[in-house]
C-alpha cells in the first residue's frame, strides 16, 4: 500500500532520532562529551540525509530497519560538519537551527571534540551493525570516506573557504556545492541502494540522480537565503545583497537560478523513471526539495 509522504517522513524521523540518542547515551565516555554531542544531535533539523537512506530501502521494498545504523551515521557526520562549520575559525556563527551553536554552549574545545566524536562514532555504527554482510559494510564505509572526506565534503569546504571574497565562475561554484553538499546526500542514496540490493545499473543511475538532487537542494538553499533577506529588509533584492557572496542567484539572477533548479529536478526525475522499480516516494522527495521553505 502506498504510504503518504508526510507519514513516511514523520515515522522515519522518529526512528532515527530515537536510535541516535540511545546510541550516544550508551557510549562509555565522559558525560560532558555526551551532552555536547546530544545537544547538536537533538537540536532539530530536517533529517533529510538519514531519511533518504530509509527511502531507498522503502523504494526497493526492503525492511527499513536494515538502514537505521547507516542513517544515524550520515546524520552524525552532517551534525559534526555543522558544529565545525559554526566555529570561530570557520563561519563564526552564534546560532544554528535557532539555538546557540555548540561552541557557544560548551566552548570551542568541547565543540571540536563533539564533532570529532560524532565523525568517528559514525564509522563504528556502520562497522558494528551485524545486519548487513561484512562486504556491504566495507563498501558502505568506502562510499562514506569518498563522500565525507577530502575528495568530498572536507575538500568542498576548503574550496569554499578559498573562494570566499572572490568572484567565482559557475563551474567553481558547482565544484564547491557538488563536494560540500551533493556528495553526502549521494552517500545516503547510494548506501541505501547498496543495503537494498539494488541492481548495479540502478546504483550508478542513483549516483547521478543524487548529484542533480544535491545541486537542486543547494540552489533552493541560495534562493531561500535571498528571499529571507528580502523579507527582513522589506524591499526587493538589490545588487548589494546579490553581490555579497557568489551564489547561484548572484551569477544567474533569481529567475535564472529557479530555471537551473527546475532543470536539475527534471534530470533527477528522468533518472528515477529509468530505474528497475517504481520510485513514487523519491519523486515526491524531489518535489519537496525543490519547493521547501526551510
Ligand atoms: C566543517 C568539514 C566541514 C564541513 C562543513 C556542511 C558544511 C560543510 C557546512 C554547513 C554550511 C552549509 C550551508 C553547507 C551547505 C549544505 C547545507 C545547505 C547544509 C544544511 O543542511 P540542512 O538544510 O540542515 O539539511 P538541517 O538543519 O535541516 O540538518
TrEMBL record:
Q: What class of enzyme is it?
A: transferase
Keywords, sorted A to Z: Isoprene biosynthesis, Magnesium, Metal-binding, Transferase
Q: Which InterPro entries match?
A: Isoprenoid_synthase_dom_sf, Polyprenyl_synt, Polyprenyl_synt_CS, Prenyl_diphosphate_synthase
Q: What is its EC number?
A: 2.5.1.1, 2.5.1.10, 2.5.1.29
UniProt-recorded Gene Ontology molecular function terms: (2E,6E)-farnesyl diphosphate synthase activity; dimethylallyltranstransferase activity; geranylgeranyl diphosphate synthase activity
User: Which PROSITE patterns does the UniProt entry name for this protein?
Assistant: POLYPRENYL_SYNTHASE_1, POLYPRENYL_SYNTHASE_2
List the cofactors. Answer: Mg(2+)
UniProt keyword annotation of Transmembrane present: no
Spell out the family assignment given in the record's similarity comment.
Belongs to the FPP/GGPP synthase family.
Q: What is this protein called?
A: Geranylgeranyl diphosphate synthase type II
Q: What species is given as this protein's source?
A: Metabacillus niabensis
Lineage of origin: Bacteria, Bacillati, Bacillota, Bacilli, Bacillales
